[in-house]
Amino acid sequence: MTRSASTALLPTTLGLAALMAASGAMAAATPWTPNTTGNVGPAPTAFMKWESIEMPASTGASCGNGTPYRFFVNRSTNAANKNKTVVMFEGGGACWGQNSCQMKDGVLGATNYNGVAANYMSGGGLALFGWITPFTARVHPLQKVQTQSWNIIYVPYCTGDVHTGNKINLYGDADPAKPITYHHKGFKNGEALANWMGRYMARPDHLLVTGFSAGGAGSTGIYGLLRLAVQPKKSALLADSGPLFQVNRTDSPEQSPSVHLHNKIRETWGLDGDDGLASKMIATYPNAGTVDNLGSLTTGLAKVFPQDRFGYAVFQADAIYSSFSYTKFYPEIEAAPVGAKRDALLNAKWTKEVATWVDAMKPHANIGYYVPYGRDFLKAHTLTTATFSGTAIKEAGLKDVGAFTDNLLDSAKPLMRAYETQRTVQNSNGIALFSTISNAFYALLGL
Fold first, then answer.
1. How many CB atoms are located within 10 Å of the residue 255 CB?
2. Could you tell me which residue, 7 or 326, shows the higher pLDDT?
3. CA dihedral 77, 189, 159, 92 (to 10 degrees)
4. pLDDT given for residue 128 in this prediction
5. From CA 264, how far away is CA 257, in angstroms rounded?
6. Residue 39: which pLDDT band, with cuts at 50, 70 and 90?
7. Which residues make Cβ contacts (< 8 Å) with residue 157, sequence separation at least 6?
8. Nearest to 192 by CA among 405, 48, 36
9. What is the DSSP string of 218-247?
10. Which of 70, 126, 66, 65 is closest to 98 using CA atoms?
């Protein structure tokens, strides 16, 4: 089935003209609209099992190595929830160089650099057969969540650009004699996914878009596309540990420590180009924010979709996303020994930006946030990976991030806002051994 975007959501000629005048980067950008009638790939045929959906090359979608992009659908037969859908964006590292785009210089490099196979969900990759997060398992061994009886769409990550890029680069910085061509096409993959959903999935009674780490950033970036394409009756976003910080491109490092990262990825991933995510989103929603601040999308979505509910979660002690954000841009951090000293340097910058990020959300009634201090799993990175255990905010009487998720999906209740002040690091029940092994592994890798 097809459906057209609501004209009320598209920019007026006057608004777009004003935007163009304000930003030369926007001169040729045009609003994004769904295209659900073209070659959008095969229709789903199965229920209650993972089905691989390969995007045609004509969509522009691809993995970083140029191989076909695939996502995976598990449709429900549950009578009450067959028209409810959860879309989960996979996490992982990112890249802007030859080695990192081939995962040769640490775990923060590009995930799935060899592409995504048709048997990905059964092949034991990062998806872990769907168990990587409770949102993608019908029955999860560690955690229940109400969306487990919904339609589930798993969106793999294979482009090194937190699901947001639209640029092909030639990288030869590590070995100029053997350069590689790398396709940062996360935004095109998101477009293809949105068009496919608009074509083949029934209009959702309820849509939840979520993701962790790079998928947290990606779910925020691609949310508007999915929202336009499927026009759900009710819709929510749960972005876990992939914050788009409030950073103006001209900020000093003292004002916004991740300004170096933001300006690097703008150019490398093509975010500012005429067909880049930042340019297209602001052309589509001129009042949402500005291309000069990538983080304005966080609050901009709340203005564009005032009836939707937006939830953002992150740990204050996250030592993985903060390392990605700062280590390669601050020599004093890169030179610091791995362990407590480096983590302290990272955290000083991280907590400053988390505070600014949270403050920006406060004026918007349809945004909630959940910010505990830390847990011993994955160096306090992500709250929804594997289990919700260890994500309590005890001072607020909240058992774990599941309470935040349930609140987010309950439109009858005001959105939850919780920020831990007691700075406790919690144990993660059920995965304690894995926590010990993974933390030792990260130490060996210099994290």
1. 14
2. 326
3. -30
4. 83
5. 13
6. confident
7. 89, 90, 91, 92, 111, 112, 126, 163, 186, 214, 215, 218
8. 36
9. HHHHHHHHHHHHH--SSEEEEEES------
10. 65
